[in-house]
């Protein structure tokens, strides 16, 4: 039975949605095409009607996952009433996020594996991530474009790294401590920067005394 164009598009979306979740849960090499198609409720034979290869699927699934992450993070920043990095830390460094890899940050779940993939996958990942890093560089505090860029990149790497390590350890208390430590440190650093900025803007110059010069000694 021939599948309609609309049904084919729906099937493709289903495969991508399942792949973005299962790759993050099990790893790229942890699940094959047959199991992916079964999880999507489709037959293995229909896979190549939608994707050229597993690498093609991985590239598109990763691009989709990063795109959705970028939109979620942008929403968090746009709705933040305070510092954007503190808002990101509050939503990112949580036990719920740590324990829900399948619907969480694709970089934290797949970063080391992406580094070992071919250029097609890495390019797709990079192309979707770059706009968010550019966006974050524009909204963080900093006295220059270069400093804001460095701050945005360091903050992103710190958030991702904290999540990766918190998932890797087998001690729940240590895992929670890692998340809390990075969030607290980020909050502390932002508070210091705000205080420094406030002090700098509110500091007035000490007026130069315009008093008379030394008295001239009278001639005897």
Kindly list the characteristics that best describe this protein.
9 helices, Tetracycline Repressor, domain 2, 220 residues, mainly alpha
What would you say this structure looks like, in words?
It is a single chain. This protein has helices at 5-26, 33-39, 54-79, 84-92, 95-99, 106-114, 119-139, 145-168, 172-202. It has a domain at 54-199: Tetracycline Repressor, domain 2 (Orthogonal Bundle). It is elongated. 70% of the residues lie in helices and 0% in strands. It has nine helices and no strands. Helix 1 (5-26) packs across helix 3 (54-79).
Query: Given the C-alpha coordinates, what overall shape results?
Result: elongated
Low-confidence stretches: 206-220
Q: Helix/strand/pairing class, anyone?
A: mainly alpha
- Strand tally is 0
Biggest sheet architecture = none
**Helix proportion:** over 70%
What is the residue-mean pLDDT, rounded to a whole number? 88
Strand content: under 5%
User: End-to-end distance, in Å?
Assistant: 124 Å
What is the CATH architecture annotation of the domain at 54-199? Orthogonal Bundle
Which series of helices and strands comes N to C? HHHHHHHHH
- Rg over alpha carbons: 26 Å
Our count of helices gives: 9
CATH superfamily of the domain at 54-199, called what? Tetracycline Repressor, domain 2
- The CATH topology name of the domain at 54-199 reads Tetracycline Repressor, domain 2
CATH class of the domain at 54-199: Mainly Alpha
């Amino acid at each position: 039975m021939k599948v309609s164009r609309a049904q084919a598009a729906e099937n493709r979306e289903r495969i991508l949605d399942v792949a973005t979740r299962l790759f993050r849960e099990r790893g790229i090499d942890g699940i094959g095409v047959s199991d992916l198609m079964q999880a999507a409720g489709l037959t293995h034979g229909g896979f190549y009607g939608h994707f050229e290869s597993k690498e093609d699927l991985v590239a598109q699934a990763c691009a989709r996952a990063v795109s959705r992450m970028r939109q979620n993070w942008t929403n968090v920043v746009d709705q933040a009433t305070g510092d954007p990095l503190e808002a990101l830390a509050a939503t990112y460094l949580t036990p719920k996020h740590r324990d829900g890899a399948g619907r969480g940050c694709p970089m934290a779940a797949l970063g080391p594996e992406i580094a070992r993939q071919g250029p097609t996958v890495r390019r797709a990942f990079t192309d979707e991530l770059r706009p968010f890093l550019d966006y974050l560089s524009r909204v963080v505090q900093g006295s220059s474009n270069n400093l804001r860029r460095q701050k945005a990149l360091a903050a992103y790497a710190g958030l991702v790294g904290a999540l990766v390590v918190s998932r890797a350890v087998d001690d729940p208390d240590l895992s929670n401590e890692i998340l809390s430590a990075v969030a607290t440190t980020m909050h502390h650093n932002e508070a210091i920067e705000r205080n420094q900025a406030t002090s700098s803007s509110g500091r007035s110059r000490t007026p130069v005394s315009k008093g008379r010069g030394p008295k001239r000694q009278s001639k005897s």
